[in-house]
Amino acid sequence: MPVRLPRPHRDDVRIALAGLLGGLLLWAAGLGTRPESDPIVLWSGRWPILLPLVVIAGCELLRRTHPRTGLLVGVAALTLDTVTQGSLATVVMFTDLVYAAVLYGQPATARRVLWISGALTVLGTVVPFAVLRVPEALLIGVVIGVVSFTPGATGWVVRNHRDAAEAARLRAEQTALLAEIDRVQAVTAERARMARELHDMVANHLSAIAIHSTAALSLDDPDTSKQALGVIRENSVEGLAEMRRLIGILRDSSGDTEPAAAPTLDGLGSLVEHARGNGLDVGLDCAHTALPAPVELAAYRIVQESLTNALKHASPGRVTVSLVQRDHALDVTVTSPFGDVRDDGPRAPGSGAGLIGMRERVALLQGTFEAGPEGATGAGTCAEDTAGGGTWTVRATLPITEGETA
Q: What is the dihedral of CA 95, 96, 100, 101, to 10 degrees?
């Protein structure tokens, strides 16, 4: 299959046509670079000037696609032009070929052209002056420098500026990409945080509402129904207040919508009392000093979610909450009865998001978290596998960084 050469760039076609037209105009006017009597002219007459002119104009078509080939053929055309009366257009187009070879060629080709043109300029200056011993001989080196080294050096400068601009563009694109990645990660992290806050703040109240409404519907006892409706109303009001606080966090702090302060461990007493009001038998053992705000918030939410899970899933019995502060960590432990599940008791469905949220909170603080049954006769993790009874234990260790305590 024949190989198709790339089409010349439109600007290269314009340059070639302009050079060829300019050379033809000079040729028609009888203007050459050397008189016919010059000893260097080996091919006299006006017609021989056209051959190197046409060849080097054709080389201009290769200045971007094949710059090295165009330069090599251009050198041959310029050599042929030197043994004729010569054309200024041929010389000018050759300088453009040198410039294009440095600018568009491979890096090795660009460096080689620059070194060769520089060496020819030095040799063209030193050797003729050493041989002829006349100041006019220095002009040979000047002409070689103007024709070869100057366009090569110009192309090298332009190439460096172009490469620097391309590198800056790539850095800008990489910076924009990293900024977009950071933005997506920030949005994802914020959504996960809001999901944890929504679950922790509202799930406790909705679970109590679900359980007591089931009890009110299943039991034909006016006193029990009235008591259940009272608990439902209380949890509905508190849940609505929590939702309003969450909306306050999402909105700007303006008008009467102010975000609520993050809960602290000082509020564990109220949290436990609320759980007792929902029917849980809860014992609290809390001993701690000043702690960093993230640690307090994580510990509070872990206890809150554990009590919610106990309300939905635990068997009858005592639930214990223990917080112990060590030198560099806070240990949070919540145990609840597990096993001997009553089929006739009202229960609320679970989605598993609570354990995921607790694990994420602990992971953000680089702590450790585990939750599961202990002390059961069975080895499984499901209720039917632990019918012999036992406890469900939630343990979290939250590191305390030195210098960050409140």
A: -30
